[in-house]
Amino acid sequence: MSMARKPLIVLGVLLSVFSLLATQCAPQATPAPPTQAPAATLAPATQAPAATQAPAKKRVLRITFAWPNRIDPAVGSDYVGSTSLANLYDTLVFPNAKGGIDPWLAESWDVSPDGLTYTFHLRKGVKFHDGTPLKASDVVYSFNRLKTIGEGYAYLVTPGVASVRAVDDATVEFKLEKPSALFLPSLVRLYIVNEALVRQNTKPEGPYGENGDYGKEWLQTHDAGSGPYMVKEFPLEQYLLMEKFTDWWGQFHPNAPDEVRFIGTTEAVTVRSLMENKELEISDQWQSFEAYKALEQIEGVKIAALPSMSSFYYMVNTKKPPTDDIHCRRAMAWAFDYEAAVSLEWPGTKQMVGPVPATLAGHDPNVFTFHRDLDKARGELAQCKYANELDKYPVDVHWVAEVPDEEKWALLFQSNMADIGIKVNVVKVPWLSMVENTSKLETAPHIATIYVSSDLPEAGLMLKQRYHSSTTGTWQQNEWLQDKELDAAIEDALATLDQNERFAKYAKIQQQIAELAPSIFIYDQVEKHAYRTCVDWPATRGESSVVMGYQLFAAHIGVDCP
Fold first, then answer.
1. Confidence class for position 2, pLDDT limits 50, 70, 90
2. pLDDT tops 50 at residue 54
3. Above 60 in pLDDT, residue 329?
4. DSSP state letter for 43
5. Exposure check for the chain: N or C terminus, fewer CB within 10 A?
6. What is the mean pLDDT of residues 473-480?
7. Across the strands, what pairs with 559?
């Protein structure tokens, strides 16, 4: 799940487009000061003491998530990790609600006429959480650390960058190997770390040469950021507690939470109990249809159905028999009942059209789309080299345990495939195991059911996330395509600066992928959350970015709950 997830999931997976815009709501009226008791008429010598004003109640925002949570800026990339990073760290630019980007740490930037040099001018007075000033050298260190470690969002930010240097403390220069239309928006995933603090907490022994472990162990449970919140407690298996960084340079919502707690559970009974007891403000997005209906019955609770850039995929392993045969893959795509699958989801959900979410700029609405047709399914299956020995090759479908609804689609798939003689084993797998399994070809299942969210609001990035060889071995690509021709087409499209020409190339790539049938495209996700109405959440009004992680940017959320 793009858990991205999005698990999603969930998975973002994934989306119309994205971003964020803080909404300012009127602050609460200041309580009147306590009145002092008047002096007694007959005994003025004794006067009642002044009443003591009670301390202001701490505002707390609590949200459930699928777990585990990786908060190292060079490691985290799923839904909870991306949300944590957006709150703990600042970036050079920030995604807005219209699908574009706004200045953030970079107040402005210049681009050379050839499109190869970007010069960013940093905001003055920005402090890290330990009080030290943020400098251009921290940006350089953050980029180099991400590139060297090569995990998380490295695949998105670092390719094609020839060099990064600090011109002075307030100016940083990026040089590209070739022009890229998506370089600038990709910087919403370059989280700036405090170089001195990370170096101070780096173990000398590690896989990164003179950089030892590059501070990876320490950054599992601590932060080195300048964002609106900072780590207070992080028992790895339970929750992440963040507290407000009062010296943050940005603007908080008047009722922004003093503390933010990300709770590691999606268990329906637990989520409902927390919400009923007013110990939860926003639920995760992985509750079942029935669970959301139950949550909606709680007084003061609503269900938000938010647009997203996420989609639900059945990722089909193209290197493992029998799904290494294109005819077997096409047979399964023809046999699946998409209408029944969509009917299991929230009202308004639609079948995917091609390999990227319909919300993304550059999506081709005319791309070839499979539908249930058993005659065509049997025709394709007859051409599969395993057609006469299917009993030897049962298909394993792994679904994510933290997202209970996924079992319904897995069982539907099992039933549909039985109609054409393909045996399917349905396997419940914890998200962490799913991530580990899909990282190696020998452990990758035939099919992994995962929500993936696009990291940027354009189709090209989703095409790269999902099908470029550089993402093979990540949870975002269980297909193991490793197709050099497809890689070259994606790279060429992403280097095309003219938008019309770039979108035309995207359309050809989408058609090429549809013909290869490396995935079964289930539906574009409507992201659902139960939330308390005492929370002023800009995302429910379409006023925040739908880039994964930014709809829950706590600095712009108001909490006024009893």
1. very low
2. yes
3. yes
4. -
5. C
6. 94
7. 535
Complete DSSP assignment for 270-322? HHHHHHHTT--SB--S---HHHHHHHHTSTTEEEEEE--SEEEEEEE-TTSTT
Q: Is 185 helix (H, G, I), strand (E, B) or coil?
A: helix
3-state secondary structure of 559: strand
Contact (Cβ atoms closer than 8 angstroms) between residue 462 and residue 360: yes
| Distance of alpha carbon 147 from alpha carbon 43, whole angstroms | 79
Cis peptide before 322 (omega within 30 of 0): yes
Using DSSP's 3-state secondary structure scheme, residue 490 falls into helix
DSSP 260: E
Both tokens of residue 63?
Answer: 């949200």
Residue 58 tokens read as 């701490």
Q: Mutual orientation of helices 289-296 and 268-276 as an angle, nearest 10°?
A: 10
The distance in angstroms from the start CA to the end CA of the chain is 34
Using DSSP bridges, classify how beta strands 424-429 and 395-400 pair: parallel, antiparallel or unpaired. Answer: parallel
Element of type H or E holding 409: helix 406-418
Percent of the chain with pLDDT over 90: 79
Contacts of 222 (CB under 8 A, 6+ apart): 201, 231, 234
Average pLDDT score, the chain? 90
Ranked by mean pLDDT, which of 178-187, 452-461, 552-561 comes out on top? Answer: 552-561
Q: Do 122 and 480 meet the contact criterion of CB atoms below 8 Å apart?
A: no
pLDDT of residue 348: 78
What tokens does 91 get?
């970036």
Q: How far apart are alpha carbons 450 and 429 in whole angstroms? A: 11
Domains, the chain, ordered by start? 57-89+227-300+533-562 (3.40.190.10), 91-196 (3.90.76.10), 308-525 (3.10.105.10)
Please compute the mean of the pLDDT values over residues 536-540 and round it to a whole number. 97
Distance, in Å, from the CA atom of 268 to the CA atom of 22, rounded to the nearest integer, reads 31
Q: Are 406 and 436 in contact (CB under 8 A)?
A: no
Predicted local confidence at residue 94, as pLDDT: 96
Structure tokens at 513: 């992928």
Q: What does the block give as tokens for 293? A: 């209906």
Give pLDDT, residue 53: 61
* Helix/strand/coil percentages in the chain, nearest 5: 30, 20, 50
C-alpha Rg value of the chain to the nearest Å: 25
Which amino acid type is present at position 464?
K
| Res. 47: pLDDT tops 80 | no
Which amino acid, 114?
D
Closest CA to 208 of 219, 200, 216, 196: 216
How far from chain centre, in Å, is Cα 336?
28
Q: Which of 125-139, 279-293, 447-461 has the highest mean pLDDT?
A: 125-139
Half-sphere exposure of 2 (CA within 13 A, CB side): 31
User: What pLDDT does residue 4 have?
Assistant: 40
The pLDDT of 405-429, averaged and rounded, is 97
